[in-house]
Amino acid sequence: MKETLRYLAGIAGPSGFGSKSTAEQVTQISSNSMVQLTAIITGATSGIGAETARVLAKRGVRVVIPARDLKKAVELKERILKESPNAKIILSEIDLSSLASVKRFCTEFLALGLPLNILINNAGIFSQKLEFSEDKIEMTFATNYLGHYLLTEMLLEKMIETAEQTGIQGRIINLSSVIHSWVKRDSFCFSQMLNPNNYNGTRAYAQSKLANILHAKEIARQLKAKNAKVTINAVHPGIVKTGIIRAHKGFITDSLFFIASKLLKSTSQGASTSCYVALSQKTEGISGKYFADCNESNCSALANDESQAQRLWRHTRALIHRRLQVCNIKHQL
Ligand SMILES: NC(=O)c1ccc[n+]([C@@H]2O[C@H](COP(=O)([O-])OP(=O)(O)OC[C@H]3O[C@@H](n4cnc5c(N)ncnc54)[C@H](OP(=O)(O)O)[C@@H]3O)[C@@H](O)[C@H]2O)c1
Question: CB count, 10 Å around CB of 100?
Fold first, then answer.
C-alpha cells in the first residue's frame, strides 16, 4: 500500500528520484563531468530504448545502436542529431533472436577497436503466438534472454579491458519487468522454455524477464569473483505504453489501459531507471541488484535464488556452445 502511494505520488526514494523522474532529470548531473563513454543499447529503434539512446547521446555518450530494422535506426539517428548535432551514433545490424546474428554483430563491433563502457540489454518482445527462432528456440526466450546472454558474454572482456584502461567502471543493465514475479518455481524449466508444450505468451514473457534478472545476478557474482571493474544490474522500467504493449490491440486491452492510465509512465519516465543505473555516481559499485523507479527494489525469492541463477547460466552456456557448433560457427566464450 505504502509502495503504491509512493508510486502514484511520485515520491522520491533514497536516490532522490522516483516514479515520475524522467531520463533527462536523472542524468542532469552526469552531463558536465563526463568523459566520452561508449554505450551499446539494444532495442533502441522504439519505446524505452529510443528515449534511452536520445538522452545518453545528449549527455555526450557515443551510442552504438544494433537494430534489426536499419531504416528505423537511421530515422532515430536523424532525430537525435537534430537535437544534439555533435552526437556520435553508430548503427549496426542485429537480430537478437539469432545466435549467428548476435555473433556477427559482436565480431563487427570488436573489430572497430572502440572502448565499451555501457551495455544496455533493452530489446524485448511479447508474443501471444508460439513462434520459433531460426535456432528453433521459442522466440520470446530467444530474443529477450538468449540473444542478450550471448551479446554480454562476447562483449564482457572488452568491457573489463576498457574499465582497466580508463579506470571508469563498466556497467551492464538488463531490462526486466515486475512481471518476473509471476513465475512459479515449478514452471521455470529450461527445456520447456526452449520448446514449450503448452505455450502461454504472458508466461513466456515473464519467464524471459526472470531469466534477465538471474543472468544479472550470476554475471555479477562472476565479475566480483574476478575483481572486475564492471557491474551488472536488472531494472523494471515501469509500465509504459510502447510497441510491446500496443501489439496487444483490442477492446479489453485498450479499456484496461484507459482505466490504468494513472499508473502508466511516459516513455521518458520509463527510460529513467536504465539511464540512472547507467550514469549516476550513486550506482557506482552496485552490482547484482534490481532497480525500479530509480531506486534499488526487491525482486522475487526465485529471482534471488543463487543456485537457480547458476543452473540457468550453465544450461544456457551449454546450449549456446552446442547450437553454434551445429551451425559450424567457431565460438570462443
Ligand atoms: N513497456 C513496458 O511497459 C515495459 C514494462 C516492463 C519491461 N519492459 C521492457 O523494456 C524493454 C523495452 O521495451 P519497450 O516497451 O520499449 O518495447 P518496444 O517499444 O516494443 O521496443 C522493443 C525494441 O526491441 C527491438 N527488438 C525486438 N525484437 C528484436 C530482435 N529480434 N532483434 C533486435 N531488436 C529487437 C525492437 O525493434 P523493432 O523496432 O525492429 O521492432 C524495439 O526496438 C523490453 O525489454 C521490455 O521487456 C517494458
Answer: 17
Among residues 199, 205, 276, 290, the one annotated as catalytic is 199
* Ligand 1 proximity of 52 Cβ (cutoff 6 Å): no
The distance of Cα 206 from the centroid of its chain, to the nearest Å, equals 14
* Catalytic (active site) residue 199: yes
Q: pTM of the entire structure? A: 0.94
213 lines ligand 1 (CB under 6 A): no
Boundaries of every domain in the chain = 2-326
Query: What backbone phi and psi angles, to 5 degrees, belong to 230?
Result: -135, 135
Q: Which amino acid residue places its CA nearest to atom 17 of ligand 1?
A: 244
Q: Which CATH number fits domain 2-326: 3.10.150.10, 3.20.19.10, 3.40.50.720, 3.30.2000.30?
A: 3.40.50.720
DSSP string, 231-252: EEEEEE---B-SHHHHTS-SHH
**Element spanning 91, H or E:** strand 89-93
Could you read off the pLDDT of 74-84 as tens digits, one per residue?
999 999 999 99
pLDDT in tens, 225-271: 999 999 999 999 999 988 776 666 555 566 666 666 667 999 999 99
Testing ligand 1's pocket by substitution, the residue of 134, 175, 244, 297 carrying the most ligand atoms inside 8 A of its CB is 244
Which atom of ligand 1 is least distant from the CA of 265? 3
Nearest one of 143, 203, 152 to 173, comparing CA atoms: 152
